[in-house]
Amino acid sequence: MATGSASSQVASFIAKFDPANARLIRACRSAMRRRLPTANELVYDNYNFLAIGYSASERTSDCIVSLAAGANGVSLSFYYGATLPDPDGILLGSGNQNRFVRLPTAATLGEPATERLIRAALAQAKTPMPDSGRGRTIVKSISAKQRPRRAAQR
Known about the structure:
By secondary structure, the protein is α+β, with helices and mostly antiparallel strands.
């Protein structure tokens, strides 16, 4: 694992993105921190995405939602999204389990349809979020090989 504080590591991961995407990632992360202040942020700088999961514990299996950032933008990923009620039809994806919502702006996180999905995901979580305290940022993994974090230049 790389040295340095978790916050400086996360800042360096975000700095790999183009400036507009980096601003969006920071804004979405701030919004999620306000929305889920007791959640731990589990950070994975993976091959495909920078993923920031919001979890009731330090266990990946307790992640409720994640921000997934790639060169093409940011999404809010629901690990068990296939089982969530989606009356507004905003969930994307067709896998057996995961579903996501694209986040063109951080304000999308506060829209009623997105908020309903977050509440439903929290309600079905096996491990409930703590009622008090402040979650920590924990860098869980850094992949040596990664897809480009910036869109290809045309």
